[in-house]
């Protein structure tokens, strides 16, 4: 269960980690290896919003250049990416 106070505190301590970014990381933690489409369905948010957050995390823009996720293209269909948390991403999620 998400602890809102911890989420807000962590976001305040790390201004680049927005509530949306942290929520996305938590959803990835619960669904590792999922695609952006699957993640958006799980989170019940627009796929484009999730894709933007994933792209920003992948580039390190939402995390101060710290790689919090690992993204790999699907072997079966290059249009799809599968997402996992990196070790640093897992450590961050554990703090929530």
From TrEMBL:
Stated name of the protein: MarR family transcriptional regulator
Q: Mind telling me which Gene3D superfamilies this protein's record contains?
A: Winged helix-like DNA-binding domain superfamily/Winged helix DNA-binding domain
Q: Which GO molecular function annotations are given, in alphabetical order?
A: DNA-binding transcription factor activity
The record's section on InterPro entries has: HTH_MarR-typ, WH-like_DNA-bd_sf, WH_DNA-bd_sf
Residues annotated as transmembrane: none
Domain annotation HTH marR-type: ranges: 1-96
Annotated coiled-coil positions are none
Q: Which domain of life is it from?
A: Bacteria
Q: Which residues form the signal peptide?
A: none
């Amino acid at each position: 269960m998400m602890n809102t106070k911890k989420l807000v505190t962590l976001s305040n301590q790390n201004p680049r980690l927005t509530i949306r970014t942290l929520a996305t990381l938590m959803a990835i933690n619960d669904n590792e290896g999922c695609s952006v489409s699957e993640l958006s369905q799980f989170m019940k948010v627009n796929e484009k919003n999730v894709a933007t957050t994933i792209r920003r995390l992948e580039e390190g823009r939402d995390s101060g250049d710290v790689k919090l996720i690992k993204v790999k293209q699907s072997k079966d269909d290059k249009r799809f990416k599968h997402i996992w948390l990196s070790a640093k991403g897992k450590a961050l999620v554990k703090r929530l």
